[in-house]
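Two proteins follow. First one:
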Amino acid sequence: MAAGVRESFDRATEITARIHQCPVPAGTVSPPVIVRPVGEAPPVAE
């Protein structure tokens, strides 16, 4: 992975880790946050 891409990916990972620190109403389900490169297609449900 190129240095600039790696730095951007690392930053995106830091931001997603902080998402779960945000306050939410009691009982709220916290789904996983997925980080992937912009050019990558989202997963297809089967």
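Second one, unrelated to the first:
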Amino acid sequence: MKPWDAGGTPVSLAVQMNVSVLLRLLPEPLARGCLVGEVEVVRTGQRALVRSVEELVAYLQGVASPAATEPGTAQEAMPGTT
């Protein structure tokens, strides 16, 4: 049984993949409206420091790209990875 999108078209699960991440934020900057912390890809354990929403989005786009499906490739997606 295939899942269907909103338009009734069958969707192939072979090309879709969820990326689970753990986001650890520092409470003091967050209280001031700043996003500062660390993001970790659960499947690979790759981590990166983030200092803004823009950096977080850029990192997530890097790990969600087709080129980042192999372990070890997404870590180069953003400076500041550990």
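SUMMARY FIELD: Residues 23 and 39 are 5 Å apart (CA to CA). Residues 53-64 form the longest helix (12 residues).
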